[in-house]
Amino acid sequence: MFRKVKKRHSSSSSQSSEISTKSKSVDSSLGGLSRSSTVASLDTDSNKSSGNSASETCAEFRVKYVGSIENLEFEMSKTLQEPLDLINYIDAAQQDGKLPFIPGDEEMVLCVSKYGVKVASVDQCDVLHRHPLYLIVRMLCYDDGLGAGKNLLALKTTDTKQEECSIWVYQCSSSEQAQSICKVLSTSFDCILSSDLKTE
């Protein structure tokens, strides 16, 4: 589930399945950026459901695609366990030119359901990315630090053999939108876990 992250090494109750809505200061190790950030951490090892209704959850959001870093080796994946590690890695990739700071102008539709995350063109004729729910390791949102009030949404995914990981970055129009996406994904996980527990 999503757990509240107060600081890098904070402990979290296994009973928690909520997303932080409080702001925190995150100091990037690159360029000394200071950003007001909401970090949502996804723990796929949790087997606790919040008891939400297992309804068909499907929501659409307009976002912009920043870029991705794909097929990272498993050893690299192990160094990106904490949310702030992932944020700093994305910062480094932007500084090195592997990821842009600003996305393209084209808006895309990000759909979140119990099956995972789908990113498609606005008319939904072209599907750009599919992230099955069971391959999503972590999702987090944070201020992009550029002063325009935009938030970045980062997904860390793995492959079916869990030998590699990839990082996908999208720009949201506001922190509220980014948090809404995270909450819908959290509900999707709750629904799946509830179904699994009922069938056992």
How is this structure best described in words?
By secondary structure, the chain is α+β, with helices and mostly antiparallel strands. The chain has a domain at 59-196: Pleckstrin-homology domain (PH domain)/Phosphotyrosine-binding domain (PTB) (PH-domain like), CATH 2.30.29. Helices cover 22% and strands 37% of the residues. The chain is built from 3 helices and 11 strands. The chain has helices spanning 74-78, 83-95, 175-199, and strands at 2-4, 24-27, 34-37, 40-42, 58-73, 107-113, 116-121, 127-132, 136-143, 151-158, 164-172. It has a 7-stranded antiparallel β-sheet with strand order 8-7-6-5-11-10-9, with helices on both faces. Strands 1-4 form a two-stranded antiparallel ribbon. A two-stranded antiparallel ribbon has the order 2-3. The longest helix has 25 residues, at 175-199. Residues 1-38 and 43-55 have low confidence and may be disordered.
